[in-house]
Every structure is written in structure tokens, then in C-alpha cells.
Amino acid sequence: MMYYYNIDKYLYQANGSADNVYIFDRKNKKEYNIYQAYEEDVINLKTVKKISGMLNDIQGVKIVENVLTLNAGERGDIDDYNVNWKSQNNKIAKMMNEKIIGNKVYKLKNAVGLQRGTAVFTSKTKSGKTISCKVIVKSNPKLTQNRKTVNSITVKKRAKAILEIKGKADLIDNAYTNTKYAKIISDKSAKSIIVKGLKKGITTLKVKVNGVKTLKLKVIVK
Q1: Residue 40 Rama label (left phi>0; alpha psi -120 to 50; beta)
Q2: Contact present, 46 and 38 (Cβ < 8 Å)
Q3: pLDDT for position 52
Q4: Helix, strand, coil distribution of the chain in percent, nearest 5
Q5: Taking the CA atoms of the chain, what radius of gyration do you get in angstroms?
Q6: What are phi and psi of 45, to 5 degrees?
Q7: Measured between alpha carbons, how far apart are the two ends of the chain, in Å?
């Protein structure tokens, strides 16, 4: 169902969630997502919150999917109205209250996949009815290089190697375990890691991704 709102000089339309609200500027005949409009200074934050508040006042809850399938690091909407869902297994998937759009962080609630497995999410409607949704995460985070999964690398002393972290969720920091032979010098929020060789030898580094999955990387320093 599509909802329409007339506020100021804009026509707002939404399918029920704040991140799917669009405005149509009749004068310039241009359509914006409200977050895009906010970033381009077409509307202010007060107007964004006003729209979000109108959507939160809707009494019913329409489930988008009874079963939601995600990859690790991927987000998805369970319902149209941003109600409070709770995961029964936060090691597989959980609710995130913020989302990065462009270079900004917005208050948006989505389910996010953390590692392979199944988690049941539950919530209650304003009428007191309990509703549930099964979230299936079909992949694990992994380290890749040139689009290939890797669990070992060779690097020269004082040299560096870059690997991507596929399946990392936004806004969840990594945790690194380093050794005297090699270390990871990347920021904890990065979606890639930089491994620096320190001393000749063979060692194993660890990268904990999404707060739940520990990846081991064998490093040969020459």
C-alpha cells in the first residue's frame, strides 16, 4: 500500500517505512528519497523527523516477509512500520538502529546478517498481537583478495598486503589479534585489512568480524 502526505510544497509518498519515503517537487518536477533530499539541503532534519513520526503513528503492522534471507553484512526490512523487533539469536542476526547512507549515519532500524545460520525475530503490534519473522543468513564473513577467498598470504618483511572483508556489517567494529611477526594496521571500522610483515617467520592473525565470527589468516613473512 502506498501512502501520500501533503506537507509544505511537497507531495510525500511512502510504502510505510521512513527509508522508502519519496518527495516530489511539483515546481522542479524532481523526485527525491527523503534522505537524499536532506543531504542535498532540499528539506531539513525537522521535516525528515516529521515524516518518520507520521509513519510511526500508523496502528497496523504489515510484515514484508515472514522469512527474510540475507548474506552476512547485508541489511533487510522485516516490516513496513519500523516497530521494535528483537532477535532470539544475536550471534546470527540482530537489529541495527542506525544505517550509513552516503557519508552520513541515519536513525533507521533494519535486520542485519552477522554469520551463517537462522534467527527468529519477534515483536508485538500496538494491539498486543505477537508477530514473528525468520531471518536466514546464508553466508559467513570471509577474507578475499582479487575476489578469491584466502586463508593464507605471503608478505615480505616491512611490506604490506591488502585483503577485503566480505560480509562485514556497517557500524560494527572489527577486532584484531596480532603477533610479533605480522600485524593488521587497519582501522577497526574498515572493510579491508592491511597486513604488515614485521619479522621473518610464520604466524596466524585473527580478525573478528561483526562481533561474532573469527577469521584466521596464516601469514608467511619472508
Answers
A1: alpha
A2: no
A3: 56
A4: 10, 50, 40
A5: 22
A6: -65, -30
A7: 62
Q: Could you list the mean pLDDT of each consecutive 10-residue stretch along the chain, which spans 222 residues?
A: 40 46 64 66 64 47 67 83 79 82 62 95 75 90 96 97 96 96 96 97 98 98 97
Q: What is the pLDDT of residue 12?
A: 44
CB distance 7 to 48 below 8 Å: no
> Which residues on neighbouring strands pair with residue 205, listed in sequence order?
217
Task: Report the alpha-carbon distance of residue 65 to residue 76 in Å, rounded.
Answer: 10
What is this structure's pTM?
A: 0.69
Fold of 142-221: Immunoglobulin-like (2.60.40)
Instruction: Show me where the domains of the chain are located.
Output: 3-56, 67-137, 142-221
Instruction: Indicate if 142-221 has the same CATH topology as 67-137.
Output: yes
Distance (Å, whole) CA 127 – CA 88: 22
Question: Which H, E and C letters describe 45-89, residue by residue?
Answer: HHHHHHHHHHHHCCCCCCECCCEEEECCCCEECCECCCCCCEECC
Cell of 174: 572489527
Tell which CATH architecture fits domain 67-137.
Sandwich (2.60)
pLDDT of residue 221: 98
3 state DSSP class of 122: strand
What pLDDT score was predicted for residue 124? 76
